[in-house]
Amino acid sequence: MNWKSNFKEGRELFLATSSKDGVPHANIVISCGFADDKLLVADCQMVTTVKNLKENPNICLVGGHIRLKGFVDIFSSGEYFEACVRKSKGYNVRHAIVVDVEEVFDLNKVTVIN
To answer: How many CB atoms lie within 10 A of CB 26?
Structure first.
Protein backbone atom coordinates (compact mmCIF):
# COMPACT_ATOMS: atom_id res chain seq x y z
CA MET A 1 0.00 0.00 0.00
CA ASN A 2 1.21 3.49 -0.85
CA TRP A 3 1.80 5.45 2.38
CA LYS A 4 0.02 8.52 0.94
CA SER A 5 -3.30 6.68 1.03
CA ASN A 6 -3.20 6.98 4.85
CA PHE A 7 -3.15 10.78 4.43
CA LYS A 8 -5.54 11.26 1.52
CA GLU A 9 -8.28 13.87 1.59
CA GLY A 10 -10.92 13.24 4.26
CA ARG A 11 -8.74 11.01 6.46
CA GLU A 12 -8.61 11.61 10.19
CA LEU A 13 -5.05 12.30 11.35
CA PHE A 14 -3.31 12.82 14.67
CA LEU A 15 -1.20 15.99 14.62
CA ALA A 16 1.49 16.80 17.19
CA THR A 17 3.36 20.05 17.77
CA SER A 18 5.61 21.51 20.40
CA SER A 19 5.95 25.07 21.65
CA LYS A 20 9.32 26.83 21.50
CA ASP A 21 9.72 25.77 25.16
CA GLY A 22 9.12 22.10 24.33
CA VAL A 23 5.55 21.83 25.66
CA PRO A 24 3.81 19.16 23.54
CA HIS A 25 0.35 19.52 22.04
CA ALA A 26 -1.75 17.07 20.02
CA ASN A 27 -4.90 17.41 17.95
CA ILE A 28 -7.12 15.39 15.62
CA VAL A 29 -7.45 16.92 12.14
CA ILE A 30 -8.89 16.02 8.75
CA SER A 31 -6.53 15.82 5.78
CA CYS A 32 -7.11 18.09 2.80
CA GLY A 33 -4.91 15.81 0.69
CA PHE A 34 -1.73 16.64 -1.20
CA ALA A 35 -0.66 19.51 -3.44
CA ASP A 36 2.84 19.71 -4.92
CA ASP A 37 3.81 16.66 -2.78
CA LYS A 38 2.96 18.64 0.37
CA LEU A 39 0.25 17.58 2.81
CA LEU A 40 -2.51 20.14 3.39
CA VAL A 41 -4.41 20.58 6.65
CA ALA A 42 -6.99 23.32 7.24
CA ASP A 43 -6.93 25.30 10.46
CA CYS A 44 -10.53 25.96 11.40
CA GLN A 45 -10.12 26.32 15.17
CA MET A 46 -6.58 25.25 16.11
CA VAL A 47 -5.37 28.18 18.21
CA THR A 48 -2.65 26.36 20.18
CA THR A 49 -1.57 24.26 17.19
CA VAL A 50 -1.00 27.32 14.98
CA LYS A 51 0.70 29.24 17.81
CA ASN A 52 3.10 26.33 18.31
CA LEU A 53 3.78 25.97 14.58
CA LYS A 54 4.58 29.68 14.27
CA GLU A 55 7.09 29.30 17.13
CA ASN A 56 8.39 25.90 16.03
CA PRO A 57 7.60 24.68 12.49
CA ASN A 58 8.40 21.03 13.24
CA ILE A 59 5.37 18.75 12.98
CA CYS A 60 4.50 15.10 13.38
CA LEU A 61 1.34 13.47 11.99
CA VAL A 62 0.04 9.91 12.27
CA GLY A 63 -2.38 8.40 9.78
CA GLY A 64 -3.16 4.73 10.24
CA HIS A 65 0.17 3.13 11.07
CA ILE A 66 2.30 5.68 9.22
CA ARG A 67 4.04 8.58 10.94
CA LEU A 68 5.17 11.68 9.04
CA LYS A 69 7.65 14.24 10.26
CA GLY A 70 8.29 17.53 8.54
CA PHE A 71 8.21 21.30 8.56
CA VAL A 72 5.29 23.61 7.90
CA ASP A 73 4.46 26.85 6.22
CA ILE A 74 1.23 28.59 7.21
CA PHE A 75 -0.84 30.54 4.68
CA SER A 76 -3.90 32.76 5.14
CA SER A 77 -4.29 33.38 1.41
CA GLY A 78 -3.09 32.03 -1.91
CA GLU A 79 -3.28 28.72 -3.73
CA TYR A 80 -2.85 26.38 -0.73
CA PHE A 81 -5.31 28.37 1.36
CA GLU A 82 -7.93 28.30 -1.42
CA ALA A 83 -7.44 24.52 -1.80
CA CYS A 84 -8.11 24.05 1.93
CA VAL A 85 -11.22 26.24 1.74
CA ARG A 86 -12.61 24.17 -1.17
CA LYS A 87 -11.88 20.87 0.56
CA SER A 88 -13.17 21.88 4.01
CA LYS A 89 -16.82 21.85 2.91
CA GLY A 90 -18.33 24.81 4.69
CA TYR A 91 -15.97 25.15 7.65
CA ASN A 92 -14.44 28.55 8.29
CA VAL A 93 -10.79 28.06 7.34
CA ARG A 94 -8.38 30.47 9.02
CA HIS A 95 -5.09 29.06 7.71
CA ALA A 96 -3.69 26.40 5.42
CA ILE A 97 -1.05 24.33 7.18
CA VAL A 98 1.27 23.04 4.46
CA VAL A 99 3.55 20.17 5.49
CA ASP A 100 6.83 19.59 3.68
CA VAL A 101 7.32 15.88 4.46
CA GLU A 102 10.86 15.03 5.58
CA GLU A 103 10.40 11.50 6.95
CA VAL A 104 7.85 8.72 6.51
CA PHE A 105 7.95 5.93 9.09
CA ASP A 106 5.98 2.67 9.03
CA LEU A 107 5.02 1.99 12.65
CA ASN A 108 4.15 -1.65 11.85
CA LYS A 109 7.54 -2.45 10.36
CA VAL A 110 9.52 0.02 12.46
CA THR A 111 11.28 1.31 9.36
CA VAL A 112 11.79 4.61 7.59
CA ILE A 113 10.08 4.54 4.17
CA ASN A 114 11.73 7.68 2.77
So the answer is: 12
Bridge partners of 34, per DSSP, are 39
Per-residue pLDDT reduced to its tens digit, 7-25: 999 999 999 999 999 999 9
**Calpha distance 99→110 (Å, rounded):** 22
Instruction: Give pTM, 2 decimals.
Output: 0.91
Domains, the chain, with CATH or none: 3-112 (2.30.110.10)
DSSP track, the chain: --GGGGGSTT-EEEEEEE-TT--EEEEEEEEEEEETTEEEEEESS-HHHHHHHHH--EEEEEETTEEEEEEEEEESSSHHHHHHHHHTTT----EEEEEEEEEEEETTTTEE--
Distance, in Å, from the CA atom of 78 to the CA atom of 71, rounded to the nearest integer, reads 19
